[in-house]
Write a structure and sequence with these properties.
The complex is a heterodimer of chains A (65) and B (713). With 65 residues, chain A is an alpha+beta fold. Helix content of chain A is 12%, strand content 29%. Chain B has 29 helices and 17 strands. Classes of the chains: A alpha+beta (65), B alpha+beta (713). Chain A binds chain B through residues 5, 26, 28-29, 31-32, 37, 39, 41-44, 57, 59-65, and chain B through 271-273, 282-283, 285-286, 289-291, 311-312, 315, 482, 503-504, 507-511, 514-515, 531, 549-550, 552, 554, 556-557, 562-563, 565.
Chain lengths: 65, 713
């Protein structure tokens, strides 16, 4: 099981960040997520595996600077 | 330990402190150091209506101080410092900013720089919405604005160290009378005296660590103007601060709003960017992943060493604890390194506290010069602050030097024997020390990139056209630290910025490049109208913009325009009304800013700048200058040439493709200028029209004469 915000989501072997975002069916174009304390940017969503029991933060970073 | 120093009082001016009403003291302070003159000027209702406060007041005071012929080191040039009507509100996050303006040594035109610390609020509570300092003193002086005893004092000083680190602590101790938190010091150091890229340090007292900490008004060399005037420091002294101190009209709404905003940040920051723990260092890996981190003088956007200098490193290096540069600010992003021991320079081997580094310093004095060691970056950061040098201009200037050195445009003869390959930590540090001493090659580098380009070409025979392409300055100001080659909107964010290429007007890389939210020129132009306007508003009011869009509400993504974070803008409109009593809606905030924004553009015109030609940027910021840059992103560029521009690249060499791509990209940038000028109500030469000036209430006779002379009518 992994946690994304308030939701608990079943984990499966080989699950990537891109898989998670597709499954969430959230149309918002996230550019960055955090897996526990590790930041992952969108160019690496497809290749980054999510470990079981992770806490995921979807970071709505849009206009910082 | 600080050596003994002497302060001789040469002027005392008694005044009666006004009660702050609706966020305003309703008067400004005038100090002329040539005649040791101190006086008070009223703030008119028109000033409040048109210029609001903060940067608006600064610009109006500066406009009236200088002539179109005024140079940065003329006595009539003024340094203006202001808070703003909302500045000084405790509990409300980000409410302690000051804005500084002056005529810049590097651009020759109006410069503005915003900074945290307690000075602006203490100045206002002492009775002044802004202060302007003109003239020059032959002896080094300290100006004390003592709101507690209701006196302005000027002291001649001797024996103070020539660095802001010691000066800040010494004056906090001497003038605090046992209450160091009652003091905020503005100071600079020897680097500001001996270069054109001097910064100012503004202190806040860190009660937890029992020391004066500081933030920097870095851009454009205002520290150099400060030192040239003979000012050692300006100090504000004030008592305790409560929500009543700022005289808000509606305290209950203010209290509720401040608590709501603080709670949201406390809840969401740990889930988002963790700024209360890692500051802006989170940006380093993110920029690197998206190919936007400047590497080797903005040639590249990524480096395998970037993770060594990002949040994962500094999370363990920063001293944990509360780091808010304003009272009760829950963003609290001003982190520092405790017990740091420099390996070089006058503090070599001694334990010091480093304020920073932040993202800009890490990218400028790290990746952009090929340094991926967090401790060397901390050491450069420490010395730049102590010497009064802008870390952004220092970093970008050294990056230019290193590329010139690696490409053989300059050599050991010119550098005094120092090697300047990218990544040379020893030379980078030595150069900073030379800048501070005004010696050797450092004296040349401290003039900034625009002057270096001229010296390298005229005296060393370097290729002027190539240096124009790779020297990352525009309007005379060094670029801040984002790679913009793949974001046309951010090229405009830099090139069309009033003071020069600083990202505080518009930061559109993600919206444009990553999210593709603005596919057309009109979309980009709209963003380059709206974002600079709204971001300007923070500077008018004495606010920090970080709470607005670096911590965003969870439901923001479901709004029509998530980039604007509308919920927070509504909160800001409520905040403004609760303090000032002026009933405003969110859209009114844009109009307020638009007036000041256009006035600053017109001010540039007064100083001989502010037209289309001055909005040009070096090609390095638009696309690949060299073959190796092109080839580092060959897939992307080849695809653009074939799919977007219909070019058959089959038999073309990279050199040819560089030339073809350049033509398209330069044309695009010109088209962007057209679209933005139109959206802003300016002529095709980038001059606001008389109609625009009238609509915004800045159609003063002198303004209309200027516009007429430049085709704006």
């Amino acid at each position: 099981m992994i946690r994304v915000g308030d939701k608990e989501i079943p984990w499966r072997e080989g699950m990537t960040v891109a898989d998670l975002i597709r499954e969430l069916n959230d149309p918002y174009p996230y550019a960055v997520v955090r897996i526990n304390s590790k930041t992952v940017s969108s160019p690496h969503f497809e290749e980054t595996l999510i470990p079981n029991n992770s806490v995921i933060f979807l970071i709505p970073m849009i206009a910082g600077g | 330990m600080m050596a003994k120093f002497e302060m001789k009082e040469i002027k005392t001016f008694d005044y009666e402190r006004p009660t702050i009403q609706k966020g305003y003291a309703n008067q400004t302070l005038y100090v002329n150091l040539s005649e040791s003159e101190v006086s008070i000027k009223p703030v008119t209702e028109q000033m409040k209506e048109v210029f609001v406060g903060g940067k608006g007041f600064d610009l109006w005071l500066l406009w009236n101080a200088v002539k179109d012929t005024t140079k940065w080191d003329d006595p009539e040039n003024a340094i203006c410092i202001a808070s703003g009507p909302l500045g000084g509100t405790p509990v409300y996050p980000g409410s302690g900013k000051s804005i500084v303006t002056s005529i810049s040594p590097t651009t020759g035109s109006v410069m503005d720089s915003n900074v945290g610390g307690y000075f602006g609020p203490y100045l206002k509570f002492s009775g002044f919405d802004a202060m302007e300092v003109r003239g020059k003193s032959s002896q080094e002086v300290v100006i004390l604005v003592d709101g507690v005893d209701q006196k302005i004092k000027i002291f001649e000083v001797s024996g103070l160290e020539d660095n802001a680190y010691d000066t800040s602590s010494a004056l906090t101790e001497r003038l605090g009378q046992g209450k160091p938190r009652s003091i905020s010091v503005v100071s600079t150091g020897s680097g500001a005296k001996n270069t054109l890229i001097g910064c100012l340090n503004f202190t806040w007292y860190d009660a937890g660590r029992k020391r004066a900490r500081y933030k920097q008004a870095g851009r454009g060399g205002i520290g150099t103007v400060f030192a040239d005037k003979g000012i050692k420091a300006i100090v504000a002294r004030w008592n305790t601060v409560s929500m009543d101190t700022n005289g808000p009209v509606d305290k209950e709404t203010l209290k509720t709003g401040g608590k709501k905003y603080s709670s949201e940040i406390r809840e969401l920051d740990p889930k988002q960017n963790e700024m209360a723990r890692v500051g802006t260092t989170h940006l380093v890996p993110i920029m690197n992943d998206h190919d936007c981190l400047p590497v080797h003088n903005f040639q590249y956007g990524q480096h395998r060493g970037a993770n060594n200098i990002g949040k994962d490193a500094y999370r363990h290096i920063f001293d944990p604890g509360f780091d808010g540069c304003w009272m009760g600010c829950t963003v609290a992003c001003s982190h520092g390194v405790k017990d740091f021991v420099p390996l070089t320079g006058p503090f070599q081997g001694k334990k010091v506290f480093v304020d920073g580094p932040e993202y800009e310093t890490i990218a400028g004095c790290g990746s952009n010069i090929g340094i991926f060691d967090p401790y060397t970056i901390a050491e450069i950061n420490f010395y730049c602050d102590a010497y009064g040098l802008d870390t952004i201009s220092v970093g970008t200037s050294i990056a230019f030097v290193m590329e010139c050195f690696e490409r053989g445009l300059i050599n050991l003869t010119h550098t005094g024997g120092m090697e300047f390959s990218f990544g040379n930590r020893t030379s980078a540090l030595e150069l900073v020390h030379q800048m501070a001493r005004g010696e050797g090659f450092g004296k040349i580098v401290g003039q900034g990139i625009r002057k270096m380009k001229a010296i390298f070409a005229e005296e060393y025979g370097a290729d002027a056209a190539f240096m124009q392409d790779i020297g990352m300055e525009a309007k005379g100001l060094e670029f801040s630290e984002y790679m913009t080659k793949e974001s046309l909107a951010q090229q405009g964010g830099y090139g069309l910025a009033l003071k020069g290429p600083q990202h505080d007007e518009a930061w559109l890389i993600f919206l444009d490049m990553v999210h593709n939210f603005m596919p057309t020129f009109e979309h980009k132009a709209e963003a380059l109208h709206w974002f600079p306007s709204f971001r300007t508003w923070f500077g008018l009011c004495g606010l920090c913009k970080l709470p607005w869009n670096d911590i965003v509400p969870e439901d923001n993504k479901d709004t029509m325009e998530p980039a604007k974070v509308i919920k927070h803008i509504e909160w800001y409109a409520e905040y403004f009304t609760a303090v000032t009593g002026r009933q405003v809606m969110p859209e009114d905030l844009i109009t307020m800013s638009e007036s000041v924004y256009n006035f600053q553009r017109i001010f540039n015109l007064k100083m001989g700048f502010g037209r289309r030609e001055h909005d040009n940027i070096p090609y390095r910021s638009m696309g690949p200058v060299t073959v190796e840059e092109y080839e580092s992103r060959a897939d992307r560029y080849d695809k653009q040439l074939t799919e977007k521009h219909g070019i058959d690249i089959g038999s073309k060499k990279t050199e040819e493709k560089v030339v073809i791509l350049r033509k398209f990209r330069e044309e695009q940038y010109e088209q962007l200028k057209d679209a933005v000028y139109k959206r802003r109500g300016w002529t095709n030469d980038g001059v606001p029209t008389a109609e625009t000036a009238k609509r915004l209430g800045v159609d003063f006779p002198e303004v209309l004469d200027l516009l007429k002379a430049h085709g704006g009518q």
